[in-house]
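Case study 2.
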Amino acid sequence: MKIANKIACILLAGIMVGPTYGAASWQLKTSGYATSKVKYSIFGEGLEEHQGYYFPEYLPADQVLHIGFRPIRFQNMSALAEVLGAKNKKIHAWKTEFESPIRCLDQVTFLYRRIYTRDVSEYTIYLQSSRTEQWYRRKIKIPSEGYQIPSYDVISLWEPLINDGTREGACFLDALNDSDKIGQLVIVVTPADTDFDFVIGDLRIVDREIGHRDFHHPFFDPILSENSAQHIEKDPFYGAPGIPALLLPISWYSMRGNYGPIFHFDPGPREVDARDIRDLKVKVIKRILDLYPFYEEQGLDRKSILNRFASIENYGLEREAFEDSVSALFAGFQDAHLAVIKKKRGRCAFSHPLALYNIGSRVYVAAVFDSLLADEIEVGMEVLEFNGAPVIEAIDRQSERYRGSSKIKKRKATRDLLTCRRDERVKLKVLSVYGSVEDVLIEDRKVRIPPDFVPRHGEFRIDENGIAYFRIRQWTYDVWIRFLNHADELESAKGLIIDLRSNGGGDGSTVLRMVSAFIDENVLCGNEYCPADGRIESLVIRPNDKFHFDLPVVILANEATACASENFIDIMRYTNRATMVADSHTQGLFSSRIELVFPDGMRVYTNSLSKPLSPNGSSYEVKGLEPDIWIHLNTVDDLAHREDKMLRTAKHLLEAH
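Prediction:
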C-alpha cells in the first residue's frame, strides 16, 4: 500500500512539473494578391493621350482614369509576320521592345489591361521570350462594345505560337525554368469595320504576390484577445476608394485594407495541436450562435439553440462528426448565410441539357442548351413524367435535399432534376405545343460553357417605344461597367426596366455605384446594428459626379431575389426612384456573408457580424420585400422570352408614365 502511494505521488509530481498546455493566441487574416513591383507601364511610353474616355472603377482599390491611348497603327510586323502567316501584309498592331528584357516569374508576373473597344471582334497580345525568341500569346474575344472588364493575366500560362508541334501544350515557362525574360510586347487588333476604336486605359506588367493582412472587428475580440477600437480607423466623414460613400457602418469600414470576405485563423509561429483547433471552433461557433441577430425573425429560441450546441460540445465528437453536427444545427436556421461548407465550389463551366421551370403544379421546358435535343424538344413543352413517375412527385422528393423556403427548395429541385451519373439517362414524357405526348431520353452531357460566353443576363436593349431593359443575374464588379457602356442610350430612353429575377446578390459596392447614378443628393441607404457592441451606424452615399440618370425605373423580382438585390430595391424605393413588380415577396436575405477558414480546413459561412436595417429602421430578414405591383403567373405563356407577363406589365407602367 505504501509503495502504491509513493508511485502515485511520483506520478502526480511528474504531472505538476511536466509541460503544461497553453491555449493558442490566434490572429484573423485575409490573404490575396497585391502588386509588389511595376515592371512596365504604358504611361511611360510617351504616347499621345486621348481625352474623353472615362475608365470606370472595377475594384474598389482602382483609381479612375480619364485618359486613354490609341497606339494601334496599320503597319507591317516583320518580327511576327511568318508566325502569324501575314508575311508582306500590314496589320493593325502596336509593339514595344524592351531595352532591358523584363524578367517573368512563374505564377508571379501578370499583365494588367484596361481597354475600350468599338467595332473590334478580338485582339491578341503577344510576348516574345528574349531567351528562346519564342512567341507566346493571349487571345481575347470582345463580348460587348465599350469598356471591357479589366483583367490580370498570369504570363507563365500563355500559350506558345508553334509551327512544328514539337512543344504543343507548353506555356511561357517550361518545366526546366521558373523564370524567363520578355523582349517584346505586341498587340494585334482584328477590327470588325474599317472605322474602329481601340483605346488603352492601362497596360502594365507587374509582379503580384500573395499578401496577408490582419482583420479586426469587435465580433472577434474575445476570441483573439484584441481591442478592435485600437485598430479600426474612423474619420468623421469616411468612405472607400472608388465608392461614392459619405458614411459607412463598421461592417464596411472594417474591411478597408483587407483582401476580401474570406478570413483565415492563423496561430502565428506557435505550433498548435488538435486541442487548440477544437477550442477555437467551439469559441467561434458559440459566439456566432450567441450573437446571431435573427432569432426573432426565424422564430427560433436562442437558449434552446445554445443548449443544443452545448450538447454537441460535451459529446467530444471527432472532427467529421463535430462538423456534421454543427452543419445540422445550422440547417435548422434556414439561412443561406449560415452554414458549414462541405466542399469548396469553383466557377460553374457547365450546364444541363435543359432548363425546367415550374408554375404551380406544372413543369415546363424553359430553355434547350444541348443541340442534339433541338429536334426532339422545344421551349414551352410541358413535362408530364420523370422516369415513369409524375414530375411533381419527383420534384417534391428531390426538394427534401435542400434548405430554404418551400418555394426555394422546389426551385432548386427543379433545377437539378435532370442530374444523373455518367452514362445514365433519364426519361421524360412531354406534351408538345401541338398536343401530342412524346418520350424523350435525356443524357446529362454537361454542356460546356465557352470561356468567352456572355450570358443573357448581361443583355441590354431598347424597344421602339424608348423603354430600356437591363438584366442583372448577379451583382459582380462588371455590372457597373456594362451599365455605363449604355449611358448614351439611357440618356434618350423614356424608362428603364432592371430585371433582378433570381438574382441572389453579390458585391455590395456595385449596388452603391448603381444607386449613386440615380440620386441627386446625399441619401441614407440604411443602418446596421452591430450585435458585438450594440452600435447602430448609418450608410450614406453621395450622387455620382460623372453619371446621372433621371428616368422612371421599374425593377422586376421574384422569390429568389435576395441579399444585395434586395438592398438595391429597398434603397431605390426609399428614394422614390423605382417601382417593384414581382409575383411574390423577395427571399428576405439582407445580411452580408463572410467565410471563416479554420486551420484544419473546416469552413463556415456566417452573417452574424451585423444586422442590416432599412432606412426606416425596420428589418426585412426572412420576410422579404413586398412588391408594389403583384403579378400572378398562370401559364407558360406568362414566361415567353422578352414578352413575359411581368415584363409586359413593366413596359405598360413606363409607357404610361
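Confidence is low (pLDDT under 50) at residues 10-21, 164-169, 344-349, 450-457.
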